[in-house]
Amino acid sequence: MSLAGPDNFPATSLADNLDKKLLVILRDGRKLVGILRSFDQFANVVLEQAIERIMVGELYCDLPLGLYIIRGENVVLIGELDLEKEELPPHMVRVMPSEIKRAQKAEKDATELKGTMRKRMEFLDFD
Amino acid sequence: MYLRPGLSRGISTDTWFESCVGEEGRKESLSWIGKQRELFFSYFKELVGKEVTVELKNDLAITGILHSVDQYLNIKLENTRVVDEAKYPHMLSVKNCFIRGSVVRYVQLPPDGVDVDILHDATRREARGA
């Protein structure tokens, strides 16, 4: 099925992005980076050499995943990565997986704590 | 059955489609919806080359030149920049992107982007089944 109309209107097809390194953002907030090898009209995509990029504050980590098929409904955005530019701002620090896991947990705990504190203070009825 | 919510009231397309499904037979309404989707598809085609801001359901808002849209209202943007860059550092090196139509919440158009009268007329024409 060609999405380009008879008026030669440019299509949204991902064909131009094949074999390029892409950033895929998923609905649960995960960020995957990999080489686009295949896609279809539902935005199901196949990523080769996929990594998950976890970012917590200034820290980040790339976890290797391998070959991934992503079901289209989970895709939010597919971005072309500009290879000339640094992928991340210079202040971001790359850390080991163990460290990012710890940072992730700390962040999660902090959010939970904030949630429970808020719940306890709810009787104050502040806006 | 021919009483349709007007575009001029600024109802989001999703609600509009839903209200159409609710009020009539399924088969008929689906063809109606199909037509309306075509209408918005055609409408977005007119906007190609203009700068738009697309706000996603995860609150990420991206401004860029509209490169193309398709029947699902998937959108391709060029020369993108994220509205809140500090919050989304991973988007810094993304210059062109594809956005799945199903995750779009709003598309903010340039002020001169919509000729309401033409759109209104087209809507009425389609509603009459022309």
UniProtKB/TrEMBL annotation, chain A:
Xref: Pfam families: LSM
Known partners and oligomeric status: Component of the heptameric LSM1-LSM7 complex that forms a seven-membered ring structure with a donut shape.
Cellular compartment(s): Cytoplasm; Cytoplasm, P-body
Similarity annotation: Belongs to the snRNP Sm proteins family.
Classification lineage: Eukaryota, Viridiplantae, Streptophyta, Embryophyta, Bryophyta
All residue ranges annotated as the Sm domain in the record: 9-84
Role description: Component of the cytoplasmic LSM1-LSM7 complex which is involved in mRNA degradation.
Organism: Sphagnum troendelagicum
Record-linked CDD domains: LSm1
Name the UniProt record assigns to this protein: U6 snRNA-associated Sm-like protein LSm1
TrEMBL record, chain B:
Keyword Plastid annotated: no
Subcellular compartments: Nucleus
Chief place where the protein resides: nucleus
SUPFAM superfamilies in alphabetical order: Sm-like ribonucleoproteins
Recorded superkingdom: Eukaryota
Family classification: Belongs to the snRNP Sm proteins family.
PANTHER family per the UniProt record, alphabetical: SNRNP CORE PROTEIN FAMILY MEMBER (PTHR13829), U6 SNRNA-ASSOCIATED SM-LIKE PROTEIN LSM2 (PTHR13829:SF2)
Protein's name in the database: Sm domain-containing protein
Lineage: Eukaryota, Viridiplantae, Streptophyta, Embryophyta, Bryophyta
